[in-house]
# Entry
Amino acid sequence: MWILGVNAPPTGWHDSAACLIDEHGQIVAFSEEERLNRHRHSLYRKPFSAARFVLHQAGLTPADIDVVALGWDSEQLYPRRFATDAEFLAYAVGLDFGPHTPEVVRVPHHQAHAASSFYASPFRKAGVLVVDGHGENESSTIWTYEDGAAPRLERTWQRTASLGYAYDAASTWLGFSFLNAGKTMGLAAYGRAAGLETEPLVEIAADDFRLAVAPLHENHGTATADEIKEQYDTVVGRWREHYARIAGTDGPDAPEERLADDPKAVLVAYTAQRIIEESVRHLAALTRKAAGVDELCLSGGVALNCSTNGTLPGPLYVPPVPHDAGVALGAAWTVRPPRRHTTALSPYQGTDVHGPDYAGREAALDTSDLLRTDLDTDALTALLLDGQIGAVAQGRAEVGPRALCRRSIIAVPNTADVNTRVNTVKNREQWRPFAGVTRRDYGERLWEQQEHLSRYMLGAAKATELGRQVAPGVVHVDGTTRPQVLHGDEAPAVGAVLDALDRHGAPPVLLNTSFNDKGEPIVNTAADALTAFRAMDLDFLVLGDDLYRKQDRTGGARR
# Structure
């Protein structure tokens, strides 16, 4: 039995993705469409290339698929839009499944989110908290999941009582897209560092929370996509009015690159962040109480808020794909859960760097303008210790929005200046922070410990005095970092460099950020890596087992 999970339009109109699992619930391959078609967040685009990739990985054709699982109830949101499942699949996925139409299973959005988190975790039983903008009929839900038992929905909050809407409004007030909530989170740290007092816009009750913007009447809890969009615009507009009143203006006074110097922008960002932190902490406690266990899983777009995640006590698990792309996996797992899951999910489920280009682009791999040598760990380590900034593209790509050292830009973070230099390389605002990566033992000395969050760089942690001393380039203005801990040889080049730094008596920690230029998705193939390497002011590129450097004008290696 083969199950193709998808996040696909018209319901999954951003972060479309495809995932293939077998009859045992084991993942064969999983990719976000943006990595293949090179359109950030893949807005309104079907997961055609991602679906082709996952099928190719298993040696299958579309006709071999038994079930297509969608992480939304498309029938509620778009009633009577598609006359048949075959018509729906043609629109949503775009593959030719042949004369036999696979069964289509429509999984409610929050259930797909919950499954993607619990079954990716090492827990046998857990409370699962899903918080996002909205599902079909809810904005936050509490579940109990247990191996061998049907999931139990414990509690729901209506769509317009949405924490995601409150954060979207702050992001758009700041001039960002709602898909750039990470920028709002990074800016909010300047408010925390300054000790700002914020107006309380959430009231915490014994078993509930009430937001400053009251929820709307919602037609008995169900609505079509058009009705939900109208409600979203209304509620987000009311939140923006609150932020405008707090700041005394309808938008920032400074341009985006200088927002950290704008007290009004910092205040709005930190106010929104405090809403999320206070509410999610309370919801997490309610989830543990409802499930009767301490083990907690988070999912939904709000689970990407690393600063909030870092305030929650363990045991806590957030998957590498808590956002909407993850419902492709969760929908598939709802149809066929994995029989055993005793370890956390490996995120390296995507395309091999030297694999085909499933989007059908021409792969230009001419490297005649570059200097190539075999990859040597000591030579690579020496470049980094010399202050050079480079990129790594090896093996199968990570899934999710965090680069986890197989599609990463790396540098030694021994000065605060490296933060400025890497932001310049990436064409980012200078107030944006970076994350650090190390091995487990050394990480225990650099920052507060996180049992699972640091596997996927999904939790902020307070840096220790040693961390601030040896790795200032990855410590944000509020004294936190978003750490990653590498286990074994899961990212060979970066892991080998960390071990070499340790042997040479240098602190075994690196700055790690995504390998992409501004506005671009994270690189996927070798052709993507070479294009980005040439376009960005990087000193070297690890591509598979090769090390590339740029030539200077005299034909030698650029220093």
